[in-house]
Amino acid sequence: MTIATTNPATGEILETFEPHDSAEVQRRIAHACDAAHALRDRTFTERTRWMHATADVLEADVERAAEMITVEMGKPIRQSRAEVLKCIKSIRFYADNAESFLAPEELADPSTVSAAAAGTVWQPLGVVLAVMPWNYPLWQVIRFAAPALMAGNTVLLKHAPNVPRAALYLDELFTKGGFPVGALRSLLVDPKDVAAVIEDRRVKAVTLTGSVPAGSAVATTAGRHIKKAVLELGGSDPFIVMPSADLAAASAVAVAARVSNNGQSCIAGKRFIVHTDVYDEFVGLFVDKMNQLVVGDPMDESTDVGPLATESGRADIIGLVDDAVSKGAQLLTGGSAPDRPGWYYSPTVLAELTDDMRIVLEETFGPVASLYRVGGRDEAVRIANQTTFGLSSSVWSNDDAEREWFIRNLDAGAVFLNGMTVSYPELPFGGIKDSGYGRELAAAGMREFCNLKTVWKA
Questions:
Q1: Entry's SUPFAM superfamilies (predicted)?
Q2: pTM to 2 decimals?
């Protein structure tokens, strides 16, 4: 495996990194273990001070961090900057709310359990391994690491091999804020080495954001060793538009949802399921807006869509689109890779899809939208729920009864009404079915890697 920073806008390898050998991996696990013992005994007041200091460090470094993200994985610079700012917000959110999220609870009437006092306390598990993807190189890590550290856990980070600069940046970030050395340690290792880290008795749990095969492998190893796992495995989110919707707003948000992060977002709207009464009008607006997008250098502030992060990722998109077109899909716009250096793919819209096309059930990780015409809400939900994924969903309707019906019937971890799915530190995030299990963010995400301990006093 090559660990390297390769600029996806040019295909140029900028820097390569030597993987950590087994001795270095053991040294870093020991660092994380030592830091876990130290953090466990620190107060929330101390951790809060360090966490706010970490946010200050990142805030002073917004531009450099944003440029690092764009160079490593191709996100337009405006979006990279927004990612860093979102990280800062989340860090401060957990600094301010962690103590209340993990506050002890007392039983109102302990005599019911024959006690003078009884209740529960939350305590950290210890060292947690985080296996993270490249599409949000800082945010995906921060949204787990900030609550984990505030709870008193420490983090071993196995980041994607194409974002090593981000991995090493995170390796130092929290230490600069005052956390003990080892509070977050990055491991530059091959995916095949992950199982051995999970198996190490010093590692108490694991979280992964990535593909279904990767999640299955991690969960299998964790299960064999009776260790907690949280999995976020992507999605093929439906974006449903009903006759009462504001079509101008829906079409604008649909474009933003589909091409955000160059289309490489697990919670992006990917399948646009539109009622026949408004289908033609919506499609006209949607395709027109897709055609207006600026595809270009991700370092240019005016760029809307940059390159895909990897050459193999673009090959996957080409394969899905070509398969659909060969089987009769209607290509409304796009469908080609521009003749230029880098791993670009033009914003694409497909219609007239049939069940024998791969794109109907597989996740589309690029700027490609799938359109479906439906006659009513039952057909809309049938198509929305037909994939194996269940991460999030978006419903556009101004009919209150209809919106409640969709909330009840969509198989997803979230439903966004008249808006684009976005992750917020204030709200739990996660999915069902092949999109994984467990939750990140909010109080629920923080508690995933804590021991809920019952305390009974005579």
A1: ALDH-like
A2: 0.97
369: helix, strand or coil: strand
Tokens of 374: 């439906």
DSSP H helical segments within 302-397, as ranges? 311-326, 377-384
CA-CA-CA-CA torsion sign (418, 421, 427, 429): positive
Q: What is the spatial distance between Cα 373 and Cα 92, in angstroms, rounded to a whole number?
A: 44
Q: How many CA atoms lie within 13 A of 417 on its CB side?
A: 13
Residues paired with 376 in a beta bridge:
none
How far is the CA of 216 from the CAs of 158, 229, 357, 432, 434, in angstroms?
Answer: 17, 11, 25, 14, 10
**Six-digit token string for 70:** 């764009």
Structure tokens at 195: 């199982």
Distance, in Å, from the CA atom of 357 to the CA atom of 271, rounded to the nearest integer, reads 13
CA–CA distance, 61 with 282 (Å, rounded to integer): 41
Spatial contact of 61 and 80, defined as CB atoms under 8 Å apart: no
Dihedral (C-alpha) 147, 151, 155, 157: value to the nearest 10 degrees? Answer: -10
Contact 449/228 with Cβ under 8 angstroms?
yes
pLDDT digits (tens, 9 = 90+) for 366-392: 999 999 999 999 999 999 999 999 999
Cβ atoms 424, 139 nearer than 8 A: no
pLDDT tens digits, one per residue of 176-230 = 999 999 999 999 999 999 999 999 999 999 999 999 999 999 999 999 999 999 9
SS3 349: strand
Place of tokens 């492998």: 217
Rounded Cα distance, 193 and 187, in Å? 10
Indicate which residues carry an active-site annotation: 232, 266
Whether 55 and 88 have beta carbons less than 8 Å apart is answered as: yes
| 293-320 residue pLDDT tens | 999 999 999 999 999 999 999 999 999 9
User: Which tokens hold the place of 78?
Assistant: 């405006």
Spatial CB neighbours of 154, under 8 Å, sequence gap ≥ 6: 32, 33, 35, 36, 39, 126, 127, 128, 148, 182, 183, 184, 185
Separation CA 436–CA 432 (nearest Å): 5
The continuous run of DSSP H or E covering 403 comes out as helix 400-409
- CA nearest 363: which of 141, 80, 133, 161? 133
Closest CA to 447 of 116, 34, 31, 125: 125
454, with CB counted inside 10 A (0-12, 13-18, 19+), is exposed
**Torsions phi, psi for 19 (to 5 deg):** -60, 150
Per-residue confidence at 1, pLDDT binned at 50, 70, 90?
confident
User: What Å distances lie between residue 269 and 45, 181, 368, 384, 423, CA to CA?
Assistant: 40, 40, 10, 11, 13
pLDDT digits 0-9 by tens, 142-172: 999 999 999 999 999 999 999 999 999 999 9
